[in-house]
Design a protein that fits this description.
Blueprint (H helix, E strand, L loop, with lengths): L9 H21 L14 E14 L11 E4 L5 E19 L4 E23 L4 E3 L2 E3 L4 E5 L4 E11 L1
Antiparallel strand pairs: 1-4, 1-8, 2-3, 2-7, 3-4, 4-5, 5-6, 7-8
């Protein structure tokens, strides 16, 4: 029987180099990628204030949030700032009145909307602010953990000082 010798030629070497380059690119994109954006080395922190709107809360929680309380992200369990202000309003919903043919805004008994203003020292990136690795952006959904309450809401305003 004839035995074939294993020979490498230029095409084989080129195919191996292309496969190694593709593996490196995939490794760089999916494993070594920093999710926080491009954080500049040695970048300073800035102070921001942002407002998270918690809707449709039970009215019993009206006095549960106070200035100075630490706020954690419930998913990552990281600190995302300190409460500096709280506004409480009646929860309102829009209903359609078929008799008049108009939409009517009405309050819901026993339910509130809470606007929690949070202050944090963050690192500014090209796409968001990072508070202990957590993205802070307008429109982002937050799961807030405070000492007496847990709530889910959206960031509706962000001010950089």
């Amino acid at each position: 029987m004839n035995k074939r010798k294993l020979r490498f030629n230029g095409v084989d070497v080129l195919l191996i180099l292309i496969a190694l380059a593709a593996a490196f690119v995939l490794l760089k994109v999916f494993v070594l990628n920093d999710r926080g954006g491009d954080v500049q080395a040695g970048s300073d922190t800035v102070k921001i204030q942002y407002v998270v709107q918690l809707q449709n809360l039970d009215a019993r929680f009206k006095e549960s949030v106070h200035r100075g309380q630490a706020v954690e992200d419930a998913i990552t369990r990281k600190s995302i700032g300190t409460v500096v202000g709280v506004e409480v309003h009646d929860f309102e919903k829009v209903v359609f009145d078929y008799d008049s043919g108009r939409e009517i805004v009405s309050s819901v008994d026993g339910r509130i909307t809470m606007l929690v203003t949070i202050e944090a020292d963050v690192v500014e990136t090209d796409r968001a602010f990072l508070a202990d690795g957590c993205d802070i952006r307008v429109g982002k959904q937050f799961s807030l953990m405070l000492p007496e309450i847990y709530g889910v809401g959206f960031c509706i305003r962000l001010d950089k000082e």
